[in-house]
Each structure stands twice: as structure tokens, then as C-alpha cells.
Specification:
The structure is a single chain. The chain is of the alpha/beta class. The protein folds into two domains: 5-45 and 84-198, 3-Layer(aba) Sandwich (Rossmann fold); 51-82 and 203-380, Rossmann fold (3-Layer(aba) Sandwich), CATH 3.40.50.1100. Helix content is 46%, strand content 20%. The chain is built from 16 helices and 16 strands. The protein has a six-stranded mixed sheet, sandwiched between helices. Strand 1 and strand 2 (9-10) form a beta hairpin. Pyridoxal-5'-phosphate binds at residues 82, 108-109, 111-112, 187, 227-233, 295-296, 340, 342-343, 367-368.
């Protein structure tokens, strides 16, 4: 599977001029990115700059309430407030070792843009972020944070002015500037080598969580749960447990419901198609891509998830905006931990599983913290 083929999903569906730079990137990743020397530097940055390892937290109040042991992997405690920094440190280090002097990235919620701006500052690389105007307006603070750290933010007005349009704009920039620019893709999406490279950089999440569960309980959990936008925090959690007898659950942005015409759930309610250089699951043209969380608001999904769905390794469900908001509030009240709206989808799915009595021990990836979502939440809850 080293060529990025996930049982017929994935691959590299790009215009001819992008083939060669992607070949060079794949070679750099395989030869340099996987070397012991590179990995040692990467680990140092994860510890010293990003704050790894993150804690595994036993959510005792929720566990008691639902009569199941619920554990949270606290990626929300990383520098920047989300798992995105694991990937941006890895790719920026690789770009810097390959002699590039410019980073570009797309962003939806702004978390990946912020994490790219951090890595750009750390490695002293020029950084330009593409963000849909619609997202820039609902995540103003993140736009300001990016600019404060020296990144240029380009607001994209074409199409629906959302994440998919930002990806298109970034791909165009990359096509015209392949010599000096690295396109720092923010999830396990896009043409090869991005899905496998981003997965490897994010797999530190599951590696740590697996060891922490064994240390703490002497056993592995029965289930691992994560929200799925492009799918990087979920794959990052699942990868280390791939060969274990553990159920995987992915929670997509169900918006107003998978049967409505406003959702972002290509796995639970989509079709096979090609988007942004990969073959994967994509939501239908008649659907308005929508989720209350900007980070799940994407029409496609990483090809490895499409494969997991096809072979039955992971069960994907569409969690609606209302269900996610209820879990957002419940975790805040029960444990004093305010999750990102994206992560709240995973929490909601975990609570449903606990309620159904399906599993005794459930590990949930808390991919980010909720600070960026206060305005959205304040408009929903009359407190
Ligand atoms: C906190 C958080 N969780 C999850 C996601 C979704 O991305 P992915 O599915 O790649 O983990 C985002 C995207 O912006 C995010 O900010």
C-alpha cells in the first residue's frame, strides 16, 4: 500500500504537472521522513514545542452516569488546542529539510491554519493560508492568530467560500510554485503521499493512548471513537490499534441529519467519486455541505476511511448538529472540559454506545478544545 492505494481508494488523480513534484515529495518522505534521524528530531519538536505526551483522562463522572468506563485522549491540551500540530510539525520539518522556503495550507475551522502558522514561525518559513470567506467570518479569532504569527491569510470567495474552495485555491498555488513551496495538507486527504504521510505523523495519538491504557488498566479498550472530517485525528487514534480486537467508530458531521439535504457525512451517506486528487467517498451534488463545526464541513474524506468502511473495519455514523451540541454541553458540565464542536461529535457517539451498553471500556479522542467555538455556542445556549 506504499503507493497510496487503499483497496481501490486513494491514488493520485491530479493534472500531469503535479505528478513530478508529488513523486519528489513521496521520495523525500520515504527516504528522509522515515529515517531514524528525522524521527528523533520530530519527536523532540512534539515534546518540547507541542507538549506531548498528552494525558489519558478517565472521565469518572460520565463513566458513572453511563455505567461504562470512558477515557479521553486529551489532544485538546496540545499547543494551539488541537491535534493539528502533530501533522504540521512533521510536514514543516520535512519541507525545511528539503530546502523549501514557503508553506501554503488550506483551513476550515482555522485550527490547521493556526497550526501551520506556528510551524511556519518555528521553522522560519514564509506561510500563506487559504480560507473560505464564510469560514474566515465565523472563525475571526483564528484569522487574527494566524496573522499575529506572521502568516498571510487569503480569504477565498469563489464557489461556496468554504473549505473545499480553499483546497482548490491552495492546489492552484501549489501547481504554480512547486519549486520553492510545500503544500501542507491538513488531513489524511488529497493525492498520494498525503493520506499515508499525515496518518503516520498523527499516529503518535494512538501509540501513546495504547500504552497509557495498558499502563492504567492492564487492558486495551473495547472501542475507540473519533470524529471524522478529513479523518486525521481518527486515523491517528486507530492506527496503533489496527490489528487489535477493538471496535472502531467514526462520527461524521451529520448536520441536519443524513437524510436531509444539509450534512457533511460522505461515509454514512455518500457515493464513490474523485475529489481533490483522490478516489474516495463524496457527498452528492444535491447536498449542501453543512456541519455546525467548520472542521467537519468537507464534502470528501480520507481514502483509508473509505477503505475501512468498505471492508467493515470501522462503523461510521452521522452525528447531527443537535446531538453534537448536547454532548458539548454535557462534557462541559460533567467534567469541566469544554471540547471543540468537532470533537463533540465523537463524544456524542461514545455516549450513545455507552447508553446502548455495547462496550465496557470506550476510548474517545478529544481532538481539540472548544475556545474557538464560544461564539457559536453562546448563540445556541441561553445561559
Ligand atoms: C478540533 C478538530 N477536530 C477535528 C477536526 C477534523 O479534522 P480531521 O478529521 O482531519 O481530524 C478539525 C478540523 O479542523 C478540528 O479542528
Amino acid at each position: 500500500m506504499s503507493d497510496g492505494d487503499f483497496e481501490g481508494y486513494g491514488g493520485r488523480h491530479v493534472p500531469e504537472p503535479l505528478e513530478e513534484p508529488l513523486d519528489r515529495l513521496a521520495a523525500a518522505y520515504d527516504e528522509v521522513g522515515r529515517s531514524e534521524q528525522f524521527q528523533a528530531k520530530f519527536r523532540d519538536h512534539l515534546e518540547e514545542y507541542a507538549g506531548r505526551p498528552t494525558p489519558l483522562y478517565h472521565a469518572r463522572n460520565l463513566s458513572e452516569r453511563y455505567d461504562a468506563e470512558i477515557y479521553l485522549k486529551r489532544e485538546d491540551l496540545l499547543h494551539g488546542g488541537a491535534h493539528k500540530i502533530n501533522n504540521t510539525l512533521g510536514q514543516a520539518l520535512l519541507a525545511s529539510e528539503a530546502g523549501k522556503d514557503r508553506l501554503i495550507a488550506e483551513t476550515g475551522a482555522g485550527q490547521h491554519g493556526v497550526a501551520t502558522a506556528m510551524a511556519g514561525a518555528l521553522f522560519d518559513l514564509d506561510t500563506e493560508i487559504y480560507m473560505g470567506k464564510k469560514d474566515a467570518e465565523r472563525q475571526k479569532m483564528n484569522v487574527f492568530r494566524m496573522r499575529l504569527m506572521g502568516a498571510e491569510v487569503n480569504e477565498v470567495t469563489r464557489g461556496g467560500a468554504g473549505l473545499a474552495d480553499a483546497v482548490d485555491a491552495a492546489l492552484e498555488d501549489f501547481g504554480g510554485n512547486v519549486e520553492d513551496t510545500h503544500y501542507l495538507v491538513g488531513s489524511v486527504v488529497g493525492p498520494d503521499p498525503f493520506p499515508r504521510m499525515v496518518r503516520d505523523f498523527q499516529s503518535v495519538i494512538g501509540e501513546e493512548a495504547r500504552e497509557q491504557m495498558l499502563d492504567r488498566t492492564g487492558e486495551l479498550p473495547d472501542a475507540a471513537v473519533a470524529c471524522v472530517g478529513g479523518g486525521s485525528n481518527a486515523i491517528g487514534l486507530f492506527h496503533a490499534f489496527r490489528d487489535d480486537d477493538i471496535a472502531f467508530y467514526g462520527a461524521e458531521g451529520g448536520g441536519e441529519g443524513p437524510d436531509s439535504d444539509r450534512h457533511a457525512a460522505p461515509l454514512a451517506a455518500g457515493e464513490d467519486d474523485v475529489i481533490h486528487g483522490m478516489k474516495t467517498r463524496v457527498i452528492g451534488e444535491d447536498v449542501d455541505v453543512h456541519s455546525v463545526s467548520a472542521g467537519l464541513d468537507y464534502p470528501g474524506v480520507g481514502p483509508e476511511h473509505a477503505m475501512f468502511r468498505a471492508v467493515g473495519r470501522c462503523e461510521y455514523a452521522a452525528v447531527t448538529d443537535d446531538e453534537a451540541l448536547a454532548a458539548f454541553r454535557e462534557l462541559s458540565e460533567a467534567e469541566g472540559v469544554i471540547p471543540a464542536l468537532e470533537s463533540s461529535h465523537g463524544v456524542a457517539r461514545a455516549l450513545q454506545l455507552a447508553e446502548d451498553g455495547e462496550h465496557d471500556t470506550i476510548l474517545v479522542n478529544l481532538s481539540g478544545r472548544g475556545d474557538k467555538d464560544m461564539e457559536t455556542a453562546a448563540a445556541k445556549f441561553d445561559l
